[in-house]
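Thread: adenosine-5'-triphosphate complex, take 2
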Amino acid sequence: MGGTFDPVHHGHLVAASEVAGLFGLDEVVFVPTGLPWQKSDREVSPAEDRYLMTVIATASNPRFSVSRVDVDRDSPTYTVDTLTDLHRQRPDAELFFITGADALAQIVGWRDSDRLFDLARFVGVTRPGYQLEDTDLPAGAVSLVEIPALAISSTDCRERVGRGMPVWYLVPDGVVQYIEKRGLYRTGRPQQRAGT
Ligand code: ATP
Ligand code: MG
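Output below.
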């Protein structure tokens, strides 16, 4: 499962866990992006912070792991490169690429989309606010699955921290603490305290 994971949240974790259960996967490898070409319009937190938050979030699940293939890459991340590297590291593994409804809609625009479907089976999961459709995708290339709806996004988590609103229960406890410790997503101005 690839992502910016800025920060990783429970929507990501539920998606991974559901797909692992439905497809009987032995392992889910979370792959934080290095330099995401699709997000060059905004500041992305340092790769090392996103990598560590993903490690913290997945540490308690023996089937979850985190890969540095994209974090350690010098060039922008393309999914075809990620899958090629993972295939090289695990030549005998059957690869699945887990993606949310919003990212699935962009697959056809992804580089080397034909090769992508040779490298992995794609699993598209439902995500509140997005329509899950495979109309433009090659027939049979993508499995669509419905997962418990969690209307959580990293964008909202970042904005919440910036406004001084809590992200408890949207992201794992250790990630709340890591965000605070590193001062991530703060807009600079101290927030006013509410209440009487
Ligand atoms: P941002 O708001 O910064 O884009 P995000 O919440 O979309 O962050 P990403 O790191 O962009 O998180 O997403 C990684 C993958 O997880 C994508 O395939 C995305 O579609 C999927 N995903 C993210 N949030 C959810 C969710 N709540 N439910 C299902 N899938 C999700
Ligand atoms: Mg996103």
